[in-house]
Amino acid sequence: MKTYQLITPKGTKDILLEECEAKRWIEARLRQVYTGYGYHEVVTPGIEYLDVFQAGGCNTGSENMFKLIDNEGRILVLRPDSTAPIARMVSTRLKHSVRPVRLFYNQRVYRQKGMYTGKSTETSQMGIELIGANTSKTDLEVIAMAAEALESCCKQEYRIEIGHCGFFEALIGRLEADDNQKEQIRLLIGAKNYAALNDLLDTLDQGETAAALKLLPRLFGGQEVFEAAGEIFEDAQTKKILDNLRWIYYSLIQMGLKKSVMLDLGFVNDNNYYTGVIFQGYIQGTGEAVLSGGRYDQLLSRFGDPMPAIGFGVNVDRLTKLRLAQGPQDDLSVPQILVYGEPGYEVLCLQYAQTLRQQPGMIVENALLGSREECLAYAQSKGISKLHIVGQTIEIISVEAAGGARG
Amino acid sequence: MKPLRIAVAKGRLEQKTLDLLEFMGMDCSCAADKGRKLIIPIDGGKLEMVLAKAPDIITYVEHGVCDIGIVGKDTIMESGQSLFEVMDLGFGKCRMVLATYKDKDFYKGFAAKTVATKYPNIARNYFEAKGMDVDIVKIEGSVELAPLLDLADGIVDIVETGSTLKANGLEEKEVIAHLSARLIVNIASMKMRKEEIQSFLNRLELALKGVK
Fold this sequence. Notes:
By secondary structure, chain A is an alpha+beta fold. In chain A, about 35% of the residues lie in helices and about 20% in strands.
């Protein structure tokens, strides 16, 4: 029979040694940014009822979730995202707390991916949720913080791209087309498939709305986007969205982010998850967004406590990979001292090691081997520079000069 | 700055692409004597051309190791998920069709149908949209063999002239999609290297008009 005891499930991996150090380093930097803004950490269960993520509660389709059945026949899923569980938690456990609520999380999410695509099913995400505020000031704070989060843990060039799902929704609402055609248009704009979009729109409508929809996927880049957008978004509703976005954009530029901030008004929504501003973070050398977020004002109402909210998540694994690609940075710490107790001095040796460890940053390993010769060979192979031998007296041996010089 | 990397499907699209790049004023001399090299510097290294099999183009572009790709629409429909498909290059035109025996009605009767194809995802999506259950058999070589050997009721395959179908007594019944070469772009590259990519696209668009 074929067995699988030597391998990890498809799309998962062990994270060890240098990679784990790099990952914890990234997490520490992000944690510093998040806590600095007054966010508190929460942990939600690894499994949740499927209901939490259904009906627009998640932008992962249920076909891509890992499912289990509990002993009462209810469907459980491995958490595919952290936002819906946090929304559930805030609407119940934190119902009467002071608003806004600022929370962050650092946990893994699980999504089924195609076979042999090189994509992980298990991803570490670290993000924030700001619940109970919906001013432009809130959006600005969160986007500025997203930029700071990327800046804090990567040396490479990065971009924060901002958009708003309201443009597409306003336009598509005005277009006379059936749901199937509207869905087609949504997919074509999302894929920036200019040619097919033009062909489809030409068969439907010749008016201003169709012209604006044709232009929408091309509206990305720098401030020039506002000029082009100003010409097609003239009604009160979309003009207001545009003005709001312009204010956020120029505020970020004032903060010195001119090189990093860009716009894409052609963002379209999967599952109607987002309701307002949306943003993504890209870093040179990664093929996909490493950060994504946006405003989701409808989600909390699904849990009986309508409240505006905005948040983002950072793909920690991606950042870890980038850090590792820059060469070794987080050397695995090697103990400075190996201590060995002669027979009969085991307890004294442990106590001696404890006193040594009181020095900050001191790493002391207890030798578990049988003789001083074995200890010396072990210290040499692990690169430990000092061997302390605890007997009647304490003998200190420099390991580099292992051949002779004592004391 | 790293050169833009463009992945091109080996074979038919390769020569067409080189013609286009030459027309854009790029020095493609390295492609003429490439030998067995798979990465070819174009225009003195300002652009790198990667030659690969069609489905791999999608993989390389989705992972961002190539910024741009030139590949048939059939490959995008079969395995493309998250990428920008920004231009229809107009060459390599053909169509994805459902074909079966000349005098056979594919839909007749209640028995579940079997379809042979090199494109299982395209076939599945097509029949799913019709609300039909069909058994799909993946074939790697000449798909026309499957109905001839009585393995399948019909095939979903690419047709250019239709002569292979005709020679084997098969006939095109429905067009599933019109295909041609497309230009795809990695999502992050489109954002990180917008100016370079946009200027490449603009020149390409002009060249396309010129070549036609």
